[in-house]
Write a structure and sequence with these properties.
About 35% of the residues lie in helices and about 20% in strands. It is an alpha/beta fold. It has a 7-stranded mixed beta sheet with strand order 3-2-1-4-5-6-7, with helices on both faces. Helix 2 links the parallel strand 2 and strand 3. Bound molecules: 5-O-phosphono-beta-D-ribofuranosylamine. Pathway: Purine metabolism; IMP biosynthesis via de novo pathway; N(2)-formyl-N(1)-(5-phospho-D-ribosyl)glycinamide from N(1)-(5-phospho-D-ribosyl)glycinamide (10-formyl THF route): step 1/1. Its EC number is 2.1.2.2.
């Protein structure tokens, strides 16, 4: 199975996904793509020997469909079986999602269905929750809403800030996402 990974930032999740796809794994990384040509994750992917590319979303302005058409052209050139969103921070339209329906995963830093969208850790702290976590789900047209493949939980500790909580959750993301990708790639 061929896996393409989309990211916008440092790509710590991408690194763990790529490192998890060893010779015994049913999948291999074929492309790491970003909407930001300067994304730190692109350098990390290249250092890991994975092909990289970028489509800067800014020249497209509000024309999401044109931006996504450019993404799809580059992605479909490598014919990915699975797309992993890993810290990809652009909203995808239904057209893009339908094109990859049933084979696109995302990691979201909350215990879905709680806290869809942004600032998940601050919202959990604000609500006085005692636990937080992350979820790997199939991407569907509704934001952060598709079938959940798995979740990991962490305790919220006294004195936690969004940053300390994010760091604790990220450790779990780095274990959960590779495990869920392996399961998903092993399915028929
Ligand atoms: C992480 O918090 C992840 O939950 C979210 O994007 C953030 C950065 O991820 N999806 P990465 O370090 O760029 O993989």
């Amino acid at each position: 199975k061929k896996v393409a990974i989309l990211l916008s930032g440092g790509g710590s999740n991408m690194v763990k996904l790529v490192e998890s796809m060893g010779p015994d794994h049913p999948a291999r990384p074929v492309l790491v793509m970003s909407n930001d040509p300067q994304a730190g994750g692109l350098q990390k992917a290249a250092a890991l020997g994975v092909a990289t590319d970028a489509v800067d979303h800014r020249p497209f302005g509000k024309d999401r469909a044109a931006f996504e058409a450019a993404l799809i052209e580059k992605l479909d050139a490598v014919q990915p079986d699975i797309i992993c969103l890993a810290g990809f921070m652009r909203i995808l339209t239904e057209g893009f999602i339908r094109h990859y329906e049933g084979r696109m995963l995302n990691i979201h830093p909350s215990l879905l269905p709680k806290y869809k969208g942004l600032h998940t850790h601050a919202r959990a702290l604000e609500a006085g929750d005692t636990e937080a976590g992350c979820s790997v789900h199939e991407v569907t047209a509704e934001l952060d809403d598709g079938p959940i493949l798995g979740q990991a939980r962490v305790a919220i500790l006294p004195g936690d800030t969004p940053e300390t909580l994010a760091a604790r959750v990220l450790v779990e993301e780095h274990k959960l996402y590779p495990a869920m990708l392996r399961e998903f790639a092993t399915r028929g």
